[in-house]
Amino acid sequence: EYGLLGLPVFDTLTFEKFSYTDKNGNKITQAAITFQNVIIELSQPKNIVTTVIQGRDKSVKEYINEGDFLISIKGNLVGLDANKMPVEEIQKMVALKTAPVEIPVSSNFLDQFGIFSVVITDVKYKQIEGTRNVVSIEIEALDEVPFEIKSNA
User: Fold this and answer.
1) For residue 65, what pLDDT is reported?
2) Whose CB among 44, 49, 79, 116 lies 3.0–4.6 Å from 86's, allowing a Cys bridge?
3) What are phi and psi for residue 140, nearest 5 degrees?
4) DSSP codes of every residue in 74-136
């Protein structure tokens, strides 16, 4: 997103603290991680089924529902030591990516669209030429509405 002067608009994004049970039965708690300067991009394609009918020009469209928000987050992992890779920050991001649950998020921008939880689908890491303590990161995610299955028994 760009402001009135054509410059990127930055936002703060926090992946909130959360817990889950892994496949071995261990309780895993992930600490909150805040990115101070990220650029967030959203799109929301509709789910529509198209059917082609013989002898009819154009297809028949059946609206199914509003699709998931596709979320792209671009930012940097920055270590405090100018001569060292941000190892701790990378390890935290890897832990977020591998969590098999939705992750609560806080962002003024995402709040406007009712997005409070995401599922991370991909993370790209890129070294930045001329720096040792900065790694560029691009996170792809889908919005999620947490739900619970309740028994009628």
Assistant:
1) 86
2) 79
3) -105, 135
4) EEEEE-SSTTS--HHHHHHHHHHHH-SS-EEEE-HHHHTTT--EEEEEEEEEEE-TT-SSEEE
- Is the distance from CB of 118 to CB of 71 less than 8 angstroms? yes
**Distance of CA 129 to CAs 39, 108, 133, Å?**
20, 31, 11
Q: Are 3 and 9 in contact (CB under 8 A)?
A: yes
Q: What is the pLDDT of residues 29-67, one digit of tens each?
A: 998 999 888 999 999 988 889 899 998 888 888 888 888
Q: If residue 153 lies in a helix (H) or strand (E), which one and from where to where? A: none
Would you state the torsion angle of the CA atoms of residues 8, 80, 78, 100, taken in this order, to the nearest 10 degrees? -130
Judge contact between 86 and 79, C-beta under 8 A: yes
> 115 is written with which tokens?
């997005």
Q: What is the pairing mode between strands 70-78 and 134-143?
A: antiparallel
Q: Of how many residues is the chain composed? A: 153
Low-confidence spans in the chain with pLDDT less than 50: none
Smallest Cα–Cα separation from 102: which of 131, 79, 71?
Answer: 71
Amino acid at the residue 67: G
Fill in the DSSP letter of residue 150: -
